[in-house]
Specification:
By secondary structure, the protein is α/β, with parallel strands linked by helices. The protein has 3 domains: 11-153, Globins (Globin-like), CATH 1.10.490; 162-264, Elongation Factor Tu (Ef-tu), domain 3; 277-398, Rossmann fold (3-Layer(aba) Sandwich). The protein contains 12 helices and 12 strands. The strands form 2 sheets. The chain has a 6-stranded antiparallel β-sheet. Strand 3 and strand 4 (211-216) form a beta hairpin. The longest helix has 31 residues, at 123-153. The protein is globular, with a radius of gyration of 22 Å.
Amino acid sequence: MSASVKKPLNETTIKTIKATVPVLAEYGEAITTHFYKRLFEDHPELKNIFNQTHQRAGEQPRALANTVYAAAQHIDHLEVILPRVKQIAEKHVSLNVQPEHYPIVGEYLLIAIKEVLGDAATDDIIEAWGEAYGVIAQAFINVEENLYEETEKQAGGWTGFRDFKVIDKVEESEEITSFYLEPSDGGVLPIFKPGQYLTIKAKIPGGSYDHLRQYSLSDAPGKNYFRISVKRESGTGNHPDGIVSTWLHNHVNKGTYLPVSAPAGDFYLDDHTERPLVLISGGVGLTPLMSMWKYVQQAQPEREVHYIHAARNGNVHGLKQELKNTEHCTSHVVYEQPSEEDVHEGLFEKEGYIDLEWLKKIAPYDADFYFCGPEGFMKAVYHSLIEWEVPNDRIHYEFFGPQGDLQI
């Protein structure tokens, strides 16, 4: 898809869609929640694609509502949301979403609008949204078609799912375990971009549908294996125990075969610049940044790099043995609640949290900043960088799960 989006909608349709923006602001999440409910009732096979944990927690309906709202706001200039389209398209390709899925989604989205809004959803509004959805869906289909083609054509690339064998399983901390994966067909692996992820298809015995989960690649590209490092997710509040992470930790061992989709994702290191690099991670958010950290030391050994990692303590800090300093690369560890052993062995540099005053002391302002971790952690880092007046084009981050909003 080109950098611009054509505007085949007429002015009446555009005006009608724009008029629904305030309604979507108020009822958008109710519409998307109802949409998923109706969709899964009539098409339970789609549970094999959508993350049901995110559904139950309300994260996926909220993310879809935000996307629909943005599309309505910019229906006359859809190129504004093209970066978001590309981001979602990367996820769709990793899940093997196909063009034939879009008409089904469109049908149930219109049903949800009508059933939630009632008489307020006039025939004109439904017709306008039907036309608008067609344009938006085609934008996704075009981008995804290009991504599928690029993925399949690269050396070692593939589309759909390819079987991989677990050749090693390493406990990195009390919570994080690494899985080393090798293609069962003996073929070569594509060179992924440091920061990208794989999608694992978990066929859990007794389950009524497959579970698809994305896990960041935690090693540098160019190896004869892929490595993912997975945190066992313990349930809190509205979030139950992680179905797939628990299964991986408890039941997947050396010799297990897993269906895997090709590396994907638009959060990756820009290695076409020599600017200083600052990597900031919290908890298991270290996985994509560890890939960047290891890659840049190989590919750009002269580049100045600072890695800052925050964890509760050393017991849950995975991959810490790989944070080795070199002449140009330095690591900094922050523990919120360090243990006596952490204190005795001097395993951390700062107790508590990352704050702007401390960040200014160890990180160069003119750097590119990449960060990943829990949403609260990411909001704190983002607001610190904004307060420091770091330009937006030097701030890069990734959510684990549906896209959130760091500006609130």
